[in-house]
Design brief:
Layout: E1 2-10, E2 13-19, E3 24-28, H1 35-45, E4 61-69, H2 74-82, E5 90-98, E6 104-107, E7 110-111, H3 114-121, E8 125-128, H4 130-137, H5 142-149, H6 153-199, H7 206-218, H8 220-236, H9 241-258, H10 266-289, H11 294-314, H12 318-336, H13 338-383, E9 391-397, E10 415-421, E11 429-430, H14 437-452, E12 459-463, H15 471-484, E13 489-493, H16 497-500, E14 505-514, E15 517-524, H17 527-539, H18 545-559
Parallel strand pairs: 3-13, 3-14, 8-12, 12-13
Antiparallel strand pairs: 1-2, 1-4, 4-5, 5-6, 6-7, 9-10, 10-11, 14-15
Length: about 550
């Protein structure tokens, strides 16, 4: 419920603060006083697009703020929890529109997005004006209206979930069949690739080992020269390192016989001699092992080239090639079970299609039951507003019949449209072909009254609900609005005294010029002021005592 509305620097409004009440709040005023501006400000809080044109002349920004009591609105509290804004019985919405184009939105003091604001607005306020008329007249929305009225949204959500699962399975089956059609060609390719990798007899590290062997074979002559020269210097030549070292060892032994204090160990010298001797023998054996094998070198080159080709095709390393081999094997194994998977998924589709048709039949049957109640209740409401000959009908199309699965959609199988006849002998016609504005206003109000009990909206704003009516019909509309206010807070903007007199509270919108500036305001009327306003609405320019007595009588009768 909207409890407080604050508007500042918005259009021709300087500053305005209004406290609304439960029940029926009437808003009246002269034509052009600014009532539509207030509706525009409320719409801004519900997520309508902002424009710098909203900002009052010579001001930098406009601010619209509202306080809502949402203690009974579980839908709103759930959305606040999901948005991480906690759970509270009060909700404050604030919209700041800057002339420079920078606009800000606040929800309970937290910066928010337009999407978040629009989501909350859907569950807070319903403005029933020309746009709302179009929603109710659009045949595409009639199935939603009926389902909400009949409490069928949970069953429809269950059906929509099954329908979504069915679509997923159908897509999966199509993919499996496509893969099956392509399987032969793909399988031949995979088997060729697997055979090629298996025949290559790959070993991890083989390429590195071959590169080392190639390097040795390619440099065999140099290796022979280097090793032979080193062996000769150490061991073979006259005056070799070992020969000289042997002399050194003998000299040191002689020194130690004379001077044992020489700090050189004979054992270390002998160890060094034997180590060098071992190195010389190793070099001798190494020289004998060196061979130049052009055939082996060519074989290595061929193998390395082959491994490079495999790397280019299947991976940059032997490890990657072997991983690719595992993937190919897994894919081939999966192909072996492809037909089985097609059979399994087809079976699941058959089962879910059977369940879908059953649920569609159930949903359609309950819709038909709800449509009979909706039809009677709307006709009763329309008849009570001086349209006694009006007939209302809910038309159905596309019944499941013999199980035509292709006729299903996420909402079931039915196509629903509301039909109406307003005069005896006239054929029932689609609701959107009603020509009379007065008839349309009463029909929309009747639908609102019937649907009021099934909705979660806290506040309903009726704008232009009195279009094209007057007299007794207007009084009937006023009574109907009063009845709606038992379920929802009603804010009704009207020009008709027959409607205004039914309000629990009455606000007057007016504008004045002060210091060459126009300012629109809105204030709560006292009982005396309310009598004056209803008298004005009733009598126009010429207000007589008799008109005032009539207005007083209207107010008294509306209370009774």
């Amino acid at each position: 419920m909207l409890t407080d509305l604050s508007i500042k620097n918005f259009a021709i409004i300087d500053e305005l603060n209004v406290a609304f009440t439960k029940g029926m709040n009437v808003v009246s005023g002269e034509t052009g006083a600014g009532k539509s501006i207030i509706i525009g400000a409320v719409s801004l809080l519900l997520g309508d697009r902002a424009s710098s044109d909203f900002v009052r002349s010579s001001e930098n920004s406009a601010v619209v703020e509202a306080l809502f009591d949402v203690s009974d609105n579980e839908d709103i509290r759930k959305k606040l929890r999901e948005a991480g804004m906690g759970e509270t019985g009060e909700l404050v919405l604030k919209r700041v529109v800057s002339r420079g184009g920078r606009n800000r939105i606040y929800i309970n003091g937290n910066l928010a997005t337009l999407g978040m604001l629009s989501s909350l607005g859907e569950s807070l306020v319903n403005i029933c004006g020309q746009r709302e008329h179009q929603v109710l007249l659009n045949a595409e929305n009639h199935i939603d209206i009926l389902d909400k009225f009949g409490g069928l949204m949970p069953l429809r959500a269950e059906f929509a979930g099954l329908y979504s699962d069915w679509q997923v399975l159908r897509s999966k089956l199509d993919e499996l069949k496509t893969r099956n059609d392509e399987k032969r060609e793909r399988e031949e390719l995979l088997r060729f690739q697997l055979d090629e990798i298996e025949k290559s007899d790959l070993r991890i590290g083989e390429d590195l080992s071959l590169q080392d062997e190639k390097r040795i074979l390619a440099n065999a002559k140099k290796l022979d020269e280097y090793a032979g020269e080193a062996h000769d210097v150490l061991y073979v030549r006259e005056g070799s390192v070992l020969e000289k070292l042997d002399g050194v060892v003998g000299n040191i032994k002689e020194i130690r016989k004379i001077d044992p204090g020489l700090k050189i160990s004979e054992e270390e010298l002998e160890s060094a001699f034997f180590n060098l001797e071992e190195i010389a023998f190793a070099l001798r054996d190494y020289v004998k092992s060196i061979t130049f094998d052009p055939a082996r070198l060519e074989e290595i080159d061929d193998r390395l080239e082959y491994l490079g080709k495999l790397k280019r095709k299947y991976g940059e390393t032997i490890e990657n090639i072997l991983k690719r081999k595992e993937k190919i094997g897994a894919e081939l194994e999966g192909m072996a079970y492809l037909n089985e998977e097609i059979v399994r998924v087809s079976g699941e589709i058959d089962e879910i299609e059977k369940l879908l048709l059953e649920k569609a039949e159930e949903l359609s049957g309950k819709r038909r039951g709800a449509s009979e109640i909706l039809q009677k209740e709307i006709e009763d409401e329309i008849h009570s507003m001086r349209m006694a000959d009006t007939l209302f009908d809910v038309r159905f199309a596309n019944h499941p019949g013999e199980g035509n699965i292709s006729s299903l959609n996420p909402k079931g199988v039915d196509e629903i449209e509301f039909y109406l006849s307003t005069n005896v002998g006239e054929e029932l016609m689609p609701l959107n072909r009603i020509a009379s504005g007065g008839e349309l206003s009463r029909i929309i109000l009747a639908m609102k009254k019937v649907l009021a009990g099934s909705g979660s909206i806290g506040t309903v704003v009726f704008d232009e609900v009195d279009s094209g009516i007057g007299g007794a019909a207007a009084e009937a509309v006023g009574k109907k609005l009063k009845e709606v206010s038992k379920h929802h807070q009603v804010i009704c903007i009207t020009h008709l005294p027959q409607i205004a007199c039914f309000g629990d509270t009455h606000f007057l919108v007016s504008k004045e010029v002060y210091e060459d500036r126009t300012n629109a305001g809105m204030g709560l009327l006292s009982e005396t002021e309310r009598l004056d306003e209803v008298t004005r609405m009733l009598g126009g320019v010429e207000v007589t005592e008799k008109t005032r007595e009539h207005a007083s009588e209207m107010l008294r009768m509306s209370r009774e």
